[in-house]
Specification:
It contains 3 helices and 6 strands, in the order βαβααββββ. The chain is an alpha+beta fold. Strands 1, 2, 3, 4, 5 and 6 form a 6-stranded mixed sheet that branches.
Length: about 100
């Protein structure tokens, strides 16, 4: 499997899934594409990651933690688990990959 050359990578709104972001962008989310952007260097191109990068578990990863109430506040988070298109959380902003 190789990443799509037509892939659109971009930040979703807080509490927005990649499914919703891709639909809003006129495209669709493919979970395999998320695995390619599940890296700190991709997150840093779209978010400031002021508190650095870390690993965590959750359906809303890869993401940037927007809430100041979280111990991971202002961190960019990746996961060892397979990313999903449907995950979202009110305290995070997802990085999404969409294809036509």
């Amino acid at each position: 499997w190789r990443p799509s050359l037509q892939r659109l990578v971009g930040p979703a709104r807080p509490n927005e899934s990649c499914e919703d972001f891709c639909t809003r962008s006129g495209q669709r989310c493919v979970a395999k594409e998320l695995a390619f952007i599940n890296q700190c260097n991709f997150l840093r191109t779209h978010f400031s990651c002021e508190a650095g990068c870390g690993q965590n578990l959750g359906a809303d990863l890869p993401c940037y933690v927007t809430s100041s109430k979280r111990d991971t506040s202002r961190q960019c988070l990746t996961t060892d688990a397979a990313p999903t298109c449907s995950g979202k959380h009110p305290d995070t902003q997802r990085l999404c990959a969409c294809v036509p």
